[in-house]
Description:
- By secondary structure, the protein is α/β, with parallel strands linked by helices.
- It has a single domain, classed as TIM Barrel (Alpha-Beta Barrel).
- Helix content is 42%, strand content 16%.
- It contains 11 helices and 8 strands.
- The chain has an 8-stranded parallel beta barrel with strand order 1-2-3-4-5-6-7-8, surrounded by 6 helices.
- Helix 3 links the parallel strand 3 (58-62) and strand 4.
- The protein binds 2-phosphoglycolic acid.
Amino acid sequence: MRKALVVGNWKMNGVRSDATDLATAIKTGFEDNGADIAVCVPSVYFSEIDSLLAGTSILLGAQNVAEHDSGAYTGEISAKMLNDFDCHFAIVGHSERRSYYNDSNESVARRYSQSLSQGITPILCVGETLEERESNETFSVIDQQLDAVIDLAGIESFAKAVIAYEPVWAIGTGKVATDDQAQEVHAYIRNKLAQLDAGIAENMQILYGGSVKPNNATALFAMPDIDGGLIGGASLDGDAFLSIYQSTK
Ligand code: PGA
């Protein structure tokens, strides 16, 4: 039985006091229901949030990680640096990174491997744009995004990773994929992995992301291949985020 997981992605929002207030609100209101929960916070606040969440079961994550081990890469944050903290997850390949910062499938695969090399669980984001969906390219786009990682890191690596299906057209737009649309792609991903390793596919946590809110989370999370969510906007409100967490099956 797969454990559900709900992850907040705070993106580049707020300032220090907002980050500590939000972490405090989540910590205070958190009631463990057996599912996992994590927050991917801006890395400048890592130290503070790490201390604030110490001793709780709310896990800490990063929103990105460098594709190189160390060196002259101005502005980047390495997996080793993240490992100075109790960093459990690193998001790689978020569509905002792919589209605004040109993170290619190959670069995402290297970030994924860097994360794993430090024992940090990568949350590999995949998903199609509206244009790709409308031209029936959803599955081929997802194939390419997954294949780059499988080629570099191998199918075995997925035993220590999480996948997030995030249709680009649903991120921050209020346009959530229907439960069936999301389930169809989740099943496709699981089936694709199953062709390489049935055990890994069965245990793989596949999250849905894109306009998940307290009022749509229960139905999405009830779908057989949806194991939780990657939450953007609604994760900035402690009550909304915790309500989504409580929607896990
Ligand atoms: P959203 O973002 O919940 O605001 O749509 C999801 C994400 O970008 O991970």
